[in-house]
Amino acid sequence: MPENTAPALRPRTAAGVHPGKPGSQSALRQRNQQRILSALATGGPQTQAELSRQTGLSSATVSNIVREMNGNRLVITEPTTSSGRRALSVRLNDTGAVAVGIDIGRRHVRVVLASLGYRILEEEAVPLPLGHCAEEGMDAAADLLAKLLGQAGVDRAAVLGAGVGIPGPIDRRTGTVVHGAILPEWVGINIREALAERLGTPVHVDNDANLGALAQVTWGPHRGTDNLVFVKVASGIGAGLVINGALFYGHLGITGEIGHATVSEHGVVCRCGNRGCLETVASTSVMIELLSRGAGEPIQTADIVDRAAARDPATLRIIDDAGLAVGRAAANVANTLNPEIIVLGGSLTGLGDTFLAPVRRGFIRHCVPLVGESTQVLMSSLGDRAEALGAAALVLGRHGALLG
Fold first, then answer.
1. What is the chain's mean pLDDT, rounded?
2. Is residue 286 part of a domain?
3. Are 243 and 312 found together in one domain?
4. 82: Cα within 13 Å, side-chain hemisphere
5. What is the Rg, in whole angstroms, of the alpha carbon atoms belonging to the chain?
6. What does pTM read for this prediction?
7. Is 186 exposed, middle or buried (0-12, 13-18, 19+ CB in 10 A)?
8. Which one of 143, 159, 215, 391 has the lowest number of neighbouring Cβ atoms within 10 Å?
9. pLDDT score recorded for residue 389
10. Do 47 and 114 share a domain, yes or no?
11. How many CB atoms neighbour CB 118 within 10 A?
12. Is residue 1 in some structural domain?
């Protein structure tokens, strides 16, 4: 197979879903229903006549779809008057329409279902094998979504869309993962199209650190913060940037790659081809490699947290070195952007102050004094849920569904 050729993907839909061909009557009906759901999410309660004007659908089509959605508890209808005439007002049922958030990592997939009122209805994570192929990861996400919809008693037609987070740079023009991803098996694959076919709903793909940042200003205690940086430390290290109240994507969408900032000019060669990148000294993969030397059994990320709690000297030294390096990289970002808050996330959040303290020391050491004094550096309260929650928020935001 040529180096830049993506592996062929087997067409597949989620368990129990048969959306039909793109031009079929059932597919057309589902698209029309999603248009009405989007109109209600954006514009609030409306009469059927207003929905017809806004969506461009005929009055008969709107009437039939609204009747069906009312039966499926997607909407609530109430008699009203419009221009002196009797009419039917239609509004979304908060527990009817849902957004899906999916976080696909190196070893896991997590799916959440969120209501229009930003309430989590169902949530679950399942493990994935290290080095899993894209098809395997997407199949697992589709199967888990089908399971959660069944548990919640939510019809698939009620799904507004799915946000998907991937640990790697995403070319926003094409929705494909580009070289440099933690999941090299996914490079070049159009996740947006492949997953939309499996899930039977529109899909929005983003970098996981971006979604972690979105989660902090949507679900976390920093809701409404205009300038925030989310730093995810895991197998890779990346940053999501909220600037002036919105995610910052730059020219192509490849931003926040602080894991590939040079922190040691004579360090080891990174997977990106450069030398001495932050990831070569501070990622969980490097920590695991160092702690596994001489160990009688394989070390996992959870073991780092357990060993730190037991005050193991080698573990504490590795965490301290990594924290100082992350703090230095965060300082460089802060000196450029001057955010209000920097939030640390990823699989090491369980370390708490053991990791946060050296990050803060490295941050203050390399920051412009006034920036260092005025910027909060905190641990995320959302833990390993942040990316999936941000993915759900991405869908809700696109539908203008901030009802809560």
1. 86
2. yes
3. yes
4. 14
5. 23
6. 0.78
7. buried
8. 143
9. 96
10. no
11. 19
12. no
CATH code of 45's domain: 1.10.10.10
Residue 299: C-alpha distances to residues 233, 278, 292, 296 (Å):
17, 21, 6, 9
Higher-confidence residue of 139 and 6: namely 139
Residues 199 and 247 in one domain: no
* Beta bridge mates, 47: 89
Distances (CA, A) of 8 to 135, 178, 192, 205, 235: 9, 17, 15, 19, 26
| Token duo for residue 99 | 């957004």
- Burial of 297 by CB count in 10 Å (0-12 exposed, 13-18 middle, 19+ buried)? exposed
On whether both 285 and 316 belong to a single domain, the answer is: yes
Tokens, residue 3: 């180096």
* The token pair that represents 40 in the structure block: 């209600």
Dump pLDDT digits (tens) for 262-299. Answer: 988 888 998 888 899 999 999 999 999 999 986 777 88
Q: Give per-residue burial for 269-294: e unless 16+ CB within 10 Å, then b.
A: ebbeeeebbbbbbbbbbbbbebbeee
Q: Does residue 403 sit within a domain?
A: no
Q: Does residue 10 belong to any structural domain of this protein? A: no
Beta partners for residue 159, in sequence order: 98
